[in-house]
Amino acid sequence: MDLNLNGKKALVFGSSQGIGKAVAQSLVAEGATVCLNGRTEEKVKKTCEEIGAHTYVVGDLTESGRGISVTEKAIKELGGIDIIVINTGGPQKNDFLDVTIEQWHTDFQSLWLSAVESLHVALPMMKEQNYGRILFVTSIAAKEPLPGLTTSNGLRAGLQGLTKSIANEYASSGITANLILPGYTNTERIQNLNLSEEKIQEMVPAGRLADPRELGDLATFLASPKAGYITGQSIALDGGVLKSH
Ligand SMILES: NC(=O)c1ccc[n+]([C@@H]2O[C@H](COP(=O)([O-])OP(=O)(O)OC[C@H]3O[C@@H](n4cnc5c(N)ncnc54)[C@H](OP(=O)(O)O)[C@@H]3O)[C@@H](O)[C@H]2O)c1
Fold this sequence. Notes:
seven-stranded parallel sheet, binds NADP nicotinamide-adenine-dinucleotide phosphate
C-alpha cells in the first residue's frame, strides 16, 4: 500500500531513541521529511544521520515555552508542517503522596503543556493547508492506572479528553488527532527494568514485549492521508494487556 507520505513534513518529539526514533524511522522510510528532537545534541544528531532524517532541533520539553520554540524551529527547517508526533520521556515513578508539587509541574509541562504549546504554533498552519495529523504517544496507563505511575496515570488520561476536543474542532479542516497507547515495549527504558521472561509472559497475553517498529508503523499509517477518517481515537498496541473496551 502506498501511504502517500512522500514529501510530507513531520516533527517527532523525543526521537533520538526508543519509540520516538522508531516512529521517525518509519516515517522516513515512507518518504516523509522528518525533524527529530531530544535533549542531548550528540545523541539526536547521531540518530538523525543514522536514520536519514532531514534535521533535528535540540530542546528539553520540561522547560516552559520549549514546545513553541522547538516547533517554530522545526517548521523553519522543514519549510512547513503536516505531521506532529507528541512523545516525551516518561515521568518519574512515585506513589501519590511522594509526588511533590514540583514534580507535578514538571510532568505537566513535559507531558501536557509542551503539546499545547506546539499545537498553538502548528494548528493554524495545518488549518490553512487543510491537512494535518496529530499523534500523541501516551501509555496504556491512560486507560488503566499502572502502580506507582501517579502523574502518568493522571495526566495521560486527561490527554484523551484534549485529543477528543481537538479532533472534534478540526475534523472539518482535514486534521485528525489520535493517541497511541503503547504497552510494554522493548526500548532502553524497559530494558533497564530487567523484566524476566516469566514476568513478561504473566503480564502480556501475547507473551512478548512490543517491538518499537510496530508502534512506528502504526503511527505512520495514522499520519498518512489513508487514515483521514480516523480521529479522536485511543489505539492501544499492547499485546492484549488492556481488557476493558
Ligand atoms: N517503553 C515502554 O514500554 C513504554 C510503555 C508505555 C508508554 N511509554 C511512553 O512512551 C514514551 C517513550 O518511551 P521510550 O521507551 O521510547 O523512552 P526512551 O527510550 O527513554 O526514549 C525517550 C526519548 O525522548 C527523549 N526525551 C526524554 N526526555 C525528554 C525531554 N524532557 N525533552 C525532549 N526529549 C526528551 C530522549 O532523548 P534525550 O535523552 O536525548 O532527551 C529519547 O529520545 C515515554 O513517554 C514513555 O512513558 C513507554
